[in-house]
Automatic annotation (TrEMBL):
The gene is engB. This is Probable GTP-binding protein EngB. GO terms for molecular function: GTP binding; metal ion binding. Necessary for normal cell division and for the maintenance of normal septation. It comes from the Bacteria. One of its GO terms (biological process) is division septum assembly. Residues 22-197 form the EngB-type G domain. Its cofactor is Mg(2+). InterPro entries: G_ENGB_dom, GTP-bd, GTP-bd_ribosome_bio_YsxC, P-loop_NTPase. Belongs to the TRAFAC class TrmE-Era-EngA-EngB-Septin-like GTPase superfamily. EngB GTPase family. Keywords: Cell cycle, Cell division, GTP-binding, Magnesium, Metal-binding, Nucleotide-binding, Septation. SUPFAM superfamilies: P-loop containing nucleoside triphosphate hydrolases (SSF52540).
């Protein structure tokens, strides 16, 4: 897929204020500090489009980026950042889950996993929740340039094995590096394939006109 344009459209915490669900969209989410903003910028080849920060948990809104004027990347708040208050975490979790569970045009959740780490309970629990809701998702392993290919492969194998406690088979996965542009063609090719068969879903227009 060739990226011709990528533009920030909106940030908010209310599903009713999102763009009408008439274009396919892909939600990017992971633990705080997993490299989400860097990955989005790498995929779209637009440095600084998604705001990177040394402070984990910086993304606190649902951010929509329109790509090639016909599909969206949706940047969701990271989960698992301990310094947020319990009430704030509860608010974030509520609107993230509402978006994921109710958004009519959501095609796939891209769950970002730090390839340097052993399987993390919080990642596995989030994938389990997606499975319970019947939401399609894939795994995107990040920061593969930070270690040997062998170590990356070992950690991915451990994570996929851990997934079998919840699923009959592990979902599709991609290995990426924002520094090396690794995985860019594969991820964009996956999205492009889904876009080709997208049909506008039925939705409640009043829900998006508040």
């Amino acid at each position: 897929m060739i990226i011709k344009s990528a533009d920030f459209i909106c940030s908010n915490t209310q599903v009713s204020k999102l763009p009408p669900p008439i274009k396919p969209e892909y939600a990017f989410i992971g633990r705080s500090n997993v490299g989400k903003s860097s990955l989005i910028n790498m995929l779209l080849q637009k440095k600084g489009l998604a705001k990177t920060s040394q402070t984990p948990g910086k993304t606190q809104l649902i951010n929509h980026f329109l790509v090639n004027e016909n599909w969206y990347i949706v940047d969701l708040p990271g989960y698992g950042y301990a310094r947020a208050s319990k009430s704030k975490k509860a608010d974030w979790n509520k609107f993230i889950q509402t978006y994921l569970d109710k958004r009519e045009s959501l095609q796939c959740v891209m769950v970002l996993i730090d390839s340097r780490l052993e399987p993390q309970k919080i990642d596995l629990e989030f994938c389990s929740w997606l499975g319970e809701k019947g939401l399609p998702f894939v795994l995107v392993f990040t920061k593969a340039d930070k270690q040997s290919n062998l170590k990356t492969d070992q950690n991915i194998a451990k994570f996929r094995k851990a997934m079998l406690a919840f699923f009959e088979e592990a979902p599709q996965h991609f290995v990426t590096s924002s520094e090396l542009m690794l995985g860019r063609d594969e991820v964009l090719g996956f999205i492009g394939g889904i876009n080709n068969s997208f049909e506008i879903p039925e939705f409640d227009e009043e829900r998006y006109s508040k």
